[in-house]
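Dear support,

I submitted the protein below through the web form. The confirmation email said the job was done, but the results page showed an empty box. After a refresh the structure appeared. I'm attaching both so you can tell me whether what I see now is the final result or a partial one.
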Amino acid sequence: MVKIIMVVLISTGVHRTPENKNPVKSSPSYLKNGEFTIKNPQAWILLVDDDGGDYDNPQGDTLYPDLQSYWTQALDVYYAGEYDVYEIKENSPGPDTSILKNYDVVIWYTGECWNSNYWSTLEAKDESTLGFYLDSLGGKLLLSSQDYFYDRYPNAGNFSSGQFPYNYLGLSKVVQDTFVKFGGIFEGDSNGIFQGISGYFSSKEVYSDTSDTVPCWLDYLFPIDTLAYNLWVHDSTDSVLIKAGVQKYDTINGYKIIYTNLGFETVSDFNKRAELLKRAVDWLTLGLEEKPLDFEKVKISFKDGYLVYSLPGNKKFILSVYDISGRKKLLFLLSGRGKTKINLKPGIYILKTKGFVKKLILIK
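What the results page shows now:
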């Protein structure tokens, strides 16, 4: 594989919201090289920018092109004001579970990145963190990365139990760099979440600025579940046809994951890029195989400093507790009946879980 290497100075991580487009200019100078948080009280989606491009470095240094606007502008069509952005500004792991646990959906993209010696895609720690977010918190993840396997599993091949692609993405095998072209056509699989959406994608004027020297490096995916495909790509002559996207719903732990090695930033039509994201988020939060809870069987109350609950069946449910302003205060993974200690000030709170919404007043 021949790829282009660029070297640059890199800084540290920044976590911010779309409203603050340039934290360096609007924050105290001592925060420039640190990690800080500007929370959007309504945010329930976290966008993780792991593309190796520096959105707000005052020196303008960048390792790879900054792709953030391709994602934020598309998200703004349906989710304006409902997401935060975590920008990874050094070649290191991304957000840990103390951050991920505050969000119902995580969207993680790596863009053109491909070599861990310069800028990694997901690292081993990221796999571990995401595994906990998915297993223990019933997380919802959209991962868009064309070279994640090239970085972490350069000899794959077959995946085996214990590896993130096998356990979480549901992949048994991958043939790397099957499609190496500047662009082509994408189509949603008839059995997947992107059914009916198709169009063109291109890396020109997206990757490596406008040099047109970096093609898309797409892999052919082989999921364990043959019904898990959601995205195909091919060239204009149909001479290369590969399966480039999968989706998985783990009914035991309650997590959902979508993986595609077609970077959504390369989708040429802005509206289709926005629609792909909407389809993904819709399925992650409430898929066809899920139904909202039976309101009559849900019992939740505050009593003597405890959250007391009774939920139908034995499945795990994520219960989010918000204050009256919409800021998430607590998140629980619950099942069956029981009670859990809470640490909240007296006031009005909104409780949400799988289509169930209830307002409660806490009195102490």
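Response: this is the final, complete result; the empty box was a page-load delay. Residues 295-362 form a domain with the Immunoglobulin-like fold (CATH 2.60.40.3080).
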